[in-house]
Amino acid sequence: MGTIANVLVGKAVLYLREPNNAKAEMSDQQAYAGSYSAKLYKSGSGNAGSTHIELASSTLWTAKTVDALVADPTDYSFYYYYSAVTGNFIQFELKYEDPDSDGWMELTVVPHQNTLGLATWTKKALALTDKIGYGGIAESGVSFFDWDLGDTIAEAVTGPLSGTGTPAVGDWQLKRVRLELWEASPERTAYVDSIEIDGTTYTIEPGGTAPGMKLDSASTEVGYSEEGLTIEYSAEVEDVRVDEETFPIGAALTSEDVAITMNLAESSMYNLDKAMAGSLLSGSILKLGAGTLKTLNARIEITNPAGYKRHILIPNCIATGGVAMQSRKNEKTVVPITLRALKTASEAAVTIIENVA
Amino acid sequence: MVKKKEKEIEEMEVIENEDEVVEIEAKVELEEVKLQPEKALYYEKLFGGKK
Known about the structure:
Chain A is mainly beta.
């Protein structure tokens, strides 16, 4: 008998990041438990944004409320290994939603601001004295945020500084957790493992128990597509032959390639720029002939029939191939994109990660 | 954080000349930049205003 969950159906979603100055990868370079950890990297340049590992529940974690966090934050912890520089390291973001309205809030604990990395595995359990920042939409539909870091977990959500009222968030329930690097500078790497959420510890492993695990780095979805996405792996093999045998007695791998091709139905400037290897996009002007070759960070997300995600991560790739765009009356202009994977020094060129939770 | 530091500086009696005060105030300002997370800017952009 076959296994239905092994049959992949449906479209793949392509996310891109460029410039390639922040990466989130599954890495075996460091691990606190098991063989892997989440590796979050900022190059030191470019825009700030969330480079993170995410754990998410398909439904709300009903017992994990804001009140429960404030009552005992030590039930939330993680192990970290930071590169030896001083900077803003891991932020622990908890996204809560109101089960009775469209209200939501991202509460971010920032225990490691301006911290010197020690290049050794250490545990951090959240504490009542840890600083927090938060922002979201209240039950009334009004936005609120407070990021002057005047509050701690113990003080919890005291409302926006403008004094328009304290949103009632105590019974809001946890939906998602992100451990993230935000600021672009300085260049730094954070490995994260064994994330504890409300007393349950999840070892960060491919195929592990961490629910809805995702590694991402503020990437952009390319939008509507036509005729799906094709991932093509090719390998060249050199046979080893001898006079005495008619079959090859061995074989050696001489080259490998992974190429992704997709027809983008959205002819946005962003998509045009990513499809063309040497283009330079600045605001509303796209220049060709600048002589640069962009490297991109690509992530492909596929959902299997069991409802779990499979992620294909390509930390470094380049756009190759021609970009032929036809403009015809009453027909959409499709932007074809071809991406080719490049190898990085310490990590694999392509990783395919299957979630089982 | 900064207000607290400024208060601490006011209470310090060892500061005797103006140059030293300027130097310490500059240090406090630098600390504020490092401690202020850029994620605040994300919410300012998302919701508007500065809080």
